[in-house]
Design goal:
Blueprint lengths: L1 E4 L14 E10 L3 E5 L6 E5 L4 E9 L9 E6 L4
Parallel strand pairs: 1-6
Antiparallel strand pairs: 2-5, 3-4, 5-6
Length: about 80
Amino acid sequence: MRIFTQPQVPEAEGPNPDFTTVFDGSLLLPDGRIAVGDVEQLTRFVHRVGDRGEYDVRVAVNSPGPDADAIDITITRPGK
């Protein structure tokens, strides 16, 4: 799993454009953290992305469904 936030340094690696978007919308992060886990609840990753508030979030995977083994998450503030 890779998390990308904006602004990003132009020469930095970005999300994989070949991945399939499985979620693209806004999320309210009451404490500025995003948590990602698997459906079997075996692993959980929590990352602080900034202050509390609303964020635009795009989640993309290399293979939609149970075979997904790579995730790119892009998080930005609305309007940026």
